[in-house]
Amino acid sequence: MIDTKITRILIVDDHAHAREAIREQLSEYEDFMIVGEAKSGEEAIFLADEIEPDLILMDINMPGLDGLKTTKLIKERHPNIIIVILTVSEDSTHLFEALKQGAQGFLIKKVNPGDWYPYLKSVVSDNIPVSYDLVNEMLLTISSHPKKSEQQSAIPNPLSQREMEILKLVAKGYTNKEISDISYISEYTVKNHLKNITKKLGIKNRVHLTRHAIENGWIEP
């Protein structure tokens, strides 16, 4: 069955030519609809409140309220809006910081325009794999923090054994299709397990699921 759901997109970039380039790049896809453009973080917050897009493409470097701070503020108000950070830098520190603020993805502007669409579709469907570099970055950050006290101890693990097996494979960077092949179950079943996992934990993003599991000691480094 073909997915005909329209993804409503808000573009946020302080440069007019950059917004125009993004708009032209995505306008050829019938399942993407540009519903607004913002040239600042403040305007992005206003439009997020007004039109509640499905997806925001957020430039990381903007004067005043930058992309990271804007992402944090929007996610606090609209946790279901998907945000993908746009940048010219490949610095993994920026990626990790963006994800900490609630972003679901990270797109390098100089990437081949033809690669934008499949990547954004993967983010929207939450089937973008978690990279090993990102997991290592998480482990380094978590290990540098003071240990939790007994009163702040890790929460009990509510997941079944099968759900933990799926979560561990997600943390290793496997896609739903790869998890299906490894576990000898259908891709539909994998999606159902992930749906149950996200419902139990109240976390929708694969990266944030991985971080949650690492922080609480459910996954061994």
Please tell me about this protein's structure.
The chain is an alpha/beta fold and 221 residues long. It has 2 domains: 7-125, Rossmann fold (3-Layer(aba) Sandwich), CATH 3.40.50; 133-215, Arc Repressor Mutant, subunit A. The chain is 48% helix and 13% strand. Strands 2-1-3-4-5 form a 5-stranded parallel sheet, with helices on both faces. The relative contact order is 0.10. Mean pLDDT is 81; it is low at 145-153.
Ordered list of secondary-structure elements with their pairings:
Blueprint: E1 7-12, H1 16-26, E2 32-38, H2 41-51, E3 55-59, H3 67-77, E4 82-87, H4 92-100, E5 105-108, H5 116-124, H6 132-143, H7 161-171, H8 176-183, H9 187-201, H10 206-215
Helix pairs in contact: 2-3, 4-6, 6-10, 7-9, 7-10, 8-9
Short synopsis of the structure:
By secondary structure, this protein is α/β, with parallel strands linked by helices. Helix content is 48%, strand content 13%. It has two domains: 7-125, Rossmann fold; 133-215, Arc Repressor Mutant, subunit A (Orthogonal Bundle).
Structural class: alpha/beta
Order of helices and strands: EHEHEHEHEHHHHHH
CATH class of the largest domain: Alpha Beta
The number of E-state strands comes to 5
Question: How many helices in DSSP terms?
Answer: 10
Report Rg: 18 Å
Which strand-content bin applies to the residues?
5-15%
Proper CATH architecture of the largest domain: 3-Layer(aba) Sandwich
Quaternary state of the chains: single chain
In CATH, the topology of the largest domain is named: Rossmann fold
Total domains, how many? 2
Distance between the termini: 39 Å
Note the overall shape.
globular
Question: How would you sum up the major sheet?
Answer: 5 strands, parallel
Biggest sheet, spatial arrangement of strands = 2-1-3-4-5
